[in-house]
Amino acid sequence: MPEKMPLRVGSRGSSLARRQVEIVVDELRQHHPQQEFELRTLVTEGDRRRDARFADFSGRGVFVRELEEALLRREVDIAVHSLKDMPSDL
Asked: Which of 26, 47, 77, 85 is catalytic?
């Protein structure tokens, strides 16, 4: 039987993001105890430019763009993120 691959969970590295991903992965482990999880910390434009004002950023999703791109490139299987950082328009 092939070895089960770990589920790669992407998140930012902030204290809030780390705590939120821990809560989600703990819950997933309760429901899927055989599944392994690999946490991947991603650095976003908003993380890299901590000294910049929000108005200085171009575009939208400065705290989520890298997570979305990692999902599209299949570098992570799921992403855990704060609703407060999600763009308000879809």
From this structure: 85
Q: Are 42 and 66 in contact (CB under 8 A)?
A: yes
- pLDDT, one tens digit per residue, over 17-38 is 899 999 999 999 999 999 999 9
Nearest to 23 by CA among 85, 82, 86: 82
Q: Which helix (H) or strand (E) holds 15?
A: helix 15-31
Instruction: Give how far the C-alpha of residue 44 lies from the chain's centroid of Cα atoms, to the nearest Å.
Output: 10
The whole-model pTM stands at: 0.77
Say which residue the tokens 């899927």 belong to. 32
DSSP label at 22? H
Pairing label, strands 37-41, 78-79: unpaired
Our answer to whether residue 77 is catalytic in this structure is: no
Give me the residues paired with residue 58 across strands.
none
